[in-house]
Amino acid sequence: MNFNIRTFKKEDWTSVSKIYAEGIATGIATFETKVPTFDIWDDKFIKKCRLVAEVDKDVVGFAVLSQVSKRAVYKGVAEVTIYIAKNQRGQGIGKQLLDALVIESEKEGFWTLQAGIFAENKVSIQLHKHCGFRVVGIREKIGQRDGIWHDNVLMERRSSKFQ
Q: What tens digit of pLDDT does each residue of 57-69 get?
């Protein structure tokens, strides 16, 4: 399958929001229960390192980073968010998109990427492992979604460029 990875543009929001809605619908991708407005989404994520994957000029996935702390000591640590359109999952797009995000993040000076993934989301956990993340812990029953408690698997990837 041929696909292209490029920087997110505001015009991509309609597609990104639909992909995010598909992730929300799984019940194991996020504690969110509705898609935010663009402004809320835009404020949540770091302006750099925003990528989308396209197939035939249609956005089929996105990967972004969010700040984990405002403290200067953590300026090189970010949390990964990645979603792939339902009809494109299992095609290798997620791996290439996450690998590209890692490369972009290193160019921007991020030395550690982390992810908090629902324990039930085995596919996402495997994807992150394939991209060099490791499990560093489990936050048991950290939050509820639709009245169901969920564990969150904490994963991180330390860049070899910053030793």
A: 999 999 999 999 9
